[in-house]
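During the first year of the project, the team set up a workflow for recording each protein of interest as an amino acid sequence followed immediately by a discrete structure-token representation. This format lets reviewers and collaborators read both layers of information side by side without switching files. As required by the reporting guidelines, we include two representative entries from the current panel. The first entry is reproduced here exactly as it appears in our internal archive.
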Amino acid sequence: MRVRRLSLRTEQSYLYYIHRFIRFHRRRPETMGSAEVEAYLTHLVLHENVAPATQNVAFNALLSLYRNILEVDLGGIAAVRAHPARRVPQVLARRGDALAGARRGAARPAAGSPLWRRVARQRRLTFACQRCG
């Protein structure tokens, strides 16, 4: 791996996942093939709930092991792939996000900007409604 000029952190990560792969199957890598690689990558997703980037690091580590060190072609690997977590959009209240952000200590909008005018108008309306009862 040093010959390929990988960064030290990449080398450490690759060695970590290669070591885990060997311990997962309890066999030497020379005796295993693409079926074992698929089983390990699927295990990472289904049982260890890893992120897609983590699964990609493990996949690239094993690919590097088999291609560059053992010089074995794995062929196609059809492991279960990790999916990124879906981000749920925040629904803003009718009063607007500017007022809520101002109360939480967020940065204030620039004076004279459309957002500043909207906040000022909302505050005037809120104050007028409180005076009316």
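The second entry, processed by the same pipeline in the following quarter, appears below.
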Amino acid sequence: MSCEKDCVRDCAKVVLPKNVADAIKEMRDNGVNDCGIVYYVMSDPGSSDLTDSIKEIERWVFKYGEGGSPDLLMSAIVNGYVVEATPEDKLREYLRRNEIEPASVPVSSNTVYKMIGRRQGVWDTLDILGITVEGVNG
């Protein structure tokens, strides 16, 4: 029973930053197998067409504070991974949660005004900062 619990804990999918997931995908798209990815990251193969991808993964694996480790890389490659939501994705989700279904809420409801205010606050902030987020204000 303890072994099953360990497997559930150890086999959980790793959450990878989008740039690291993109780098792994690029390497796989270029014919590098899972062992090759680990090999390239753990050793310095010199210059290649994939140098940028290798360096992106290396930074995550070895740079203190980036959240990665060699064990997490191997777990992600073997057990699969989930791509961490970007700030833009989180903003789109926040706005989606604050959408209003007119038929479901009375017009005089405070909830409606709060939801409208939240959405408008996001749009105003993006406008003030000069930021365009696809699917939100651009």
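For the second entry, the following points were noted during internal review. The chain has a mean pLDDT of 83. The longest strand covers residues 14-16. Both points are flagged for discussion at the upcoming steering committee meeting.
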